[in-house]
Amino acid sequence: MAVVRYREALNQALREEMTRDERVFLMGEDIGVFNGAYKVTAGLLEEFGEARVRDTPISENTIVGMGVGAAMTGTRPVVELMTINFSLLAMDQIVNHAAHIRYMFGGQVAVPLVVRMPQGAGHQLGPTHSHSFEALYLHVPGLLVAVPSTPADAKGLLKSAIRDDNPVIFIEHEYLYGQRGDVPDADDGDHLVPFGRAAVRREGEDATIVGISRMALTAVRAAEALADQHDVSAEVIDPRTLRPLDLDTILASVRKTNRCVIVEEGWPHGGVGANLAALIQEQAFDWLDAPVGRVTGADVPMPYSKPLEQIAFPHEPQVVDAVLATLRDS
Amino acid sequence: MQLIRRFEERAGELYAKAKIGGFLHLAIGEEATIVGAARALRDTDYLISTYRSHGHAIARGTPPEAVMAELFGKQDGCSRGRGGSMHMFDLERRFMGGYGIVGGNLPIAAGFGLSAELLGTDDATLCMFGDGASNQGTFGETMNLAALWRLPVVFMVTNNQFGMGTALARHSAVTDLQRKGESFGVPGVRCDGMDVADTYRVVCDALKRAREERQPLLVEAVTYRFRGHSMADPEEYRTREQVAEWRKRDPIALWSRRLVEAGVLDEAAVEALDREAVAQVDEAVAFADASPFPAPESLYDDVYVLGDQVRGWYSVDERTPDVHRGEEERERGVHPSTREEYDQHAAGPHESGDAPRPADEAQDAGERAHDGERGG
Ligand SMILES: Cc1ncc(C[n+]2csc(CCOP(=O)(O)OP(=O)(O)O)c2C)c(N)n1
Predict the structure, then answer these.
(1) What is the ipTM of this complex?
(2) Which of A35, A82, A93, B360 could hold A42 in an S-S bridge, CB 3.0 to 4.6 Å?
(3) Which residue range forms the structural domain that includes residue A272?
(4) What is the CATH number of domain B2-290?
């Protein structure tokens, strides 16, 4: 066990999986000589060579598509895209191809591909680089979707993603790359975090807060503020993967607290929270003492200007307000 | 060119002081490609570029004040503070934008050409993009359609030898970029992108053919960026010697030497021009400083064109637990906790070092950007 940054945890996962399985290889823009836009792949070119750490031209749709083809024929590609907004250029290969090929061809092939990329606002990158799109990928049957919020989960989930035979959309977060946390290293044995198992980050009795991606951290801070300033005990759940989703853990919590607020950085319409709120009311309606609350990014393209950007995604006070509102309603 | 150079040098300094956020891509070294090309345009022609386009806006006539204010994220910025360094825009001067998505501007440029065709104008379009962008699917698709439909568009690839940290020969199988459009029906020409006069001449010819013969062309401007890809690029992918070699052909030094040799300017006049440029940049900074941040109430402005059908839009406000209609937000006022958040950031960077530096594509995001950053 060692304290490492989220980006280093990802780097360890890649290194360990490449060492374990010769078929695992990396492709992406500036991942080799440049060591990666966010340095996640630092040092891997030297260690594994140009054949397995491949710098690509700026051709998102094609590199993901080549990943699909390579995955169908015996290798296990991990494709890095610099930012989730650029994955929109590869939407065709991700949705029409990666997600559908197995089904469309009657189960004869699998597409064991991982597409990794960061998302998120807060660094003034403006409307082409700052969004949160987990909801877009959550929408698509055939994909697995991971949204790790801690270094340990980043490592464990990435290792599981690489070993899984399904296409995985692995969503990292720009803000989280520098965050530190305890992470089991290779000496501790294989650190795998299974998909479909939520983490309860904090236990509580009065309300459940579900935080997605970086918002899992915001949710924990909000829960601390609720305890300190409002005498409210909130339970915080980080689903860690959205497909498969560990609905059982969320429902068990809601049945205990009778209130739920979902926090995400993405847009409200068709968001993760919209979907989850529907599932909760379908399956735990009788336990709810208040409408399910949502705290989301503002329904706008992300502005550049710093103060505007800061009010366009959620912070603790909005989460606190939303939780208090569920308590007032009852 | 001198104004653009001084402007960008200052922008770099202000970035280090956290007056400017996000990514800042400077075109220092590439000024001749910008000015040579922009000067070849008529006022009614369209120019479209990339995330590296402070100079393109200025060359098109956008006041440096408005460009600097945009970098500061201010209300009087040329994109009203919404776009930042990567997304400059000035409709009045037909600077049709800098775009943050590599290759995203190519089809849009062809669309300007299509409008000219449909509306029967003789406006031409100049579309500038990098060598790296020539690998996007949009490149081939746009070349084909522009040639097929005979659109009045000149494509200009500013070959600065690198796409971020990847050298041309490592990202493109064909390195003779002027030939990259040939098989699509777009002939190529090359110009010396360190020579403003050569660039001007070649682009003038290309625009003439595009306008009169409806023949799209691909101009390759051979150039070099003296600085990193963006502000904190460690530049491990190239040698100092290579940079020094190219710096000998600094486009501004070359041009002023030529003017002096030809007796058009004397040394004193060159220096006076520089002083003037510096003074203009000073003014731009003062203006940007004085300009207010966009008001928090304006967050939802301009998402849609409003009219009879779209009077406002249904919006779930993340800042309050209430559900309401976005347009009415102005009347409702801003939630107190939102106001607090806004005021805190509008007050400017904090001395404590918790002002987040951008997690640049080219820098170690975590070490700088996130240590000590206040929570999201
Ligand atoms: C679709 C997309 N992919 C990746 C990026 C990240 N990125 C920004 S600039 C750049 C390099 C572009 O190189 P080039 O086109 O040669 O232009 P230059 O930066 O040299 O002016 C990359 C990869 C992006 N902005 N958009």
Answers:
(1) 0.95
(2) A35
(3) 199-329
(4) 3.40.50.970
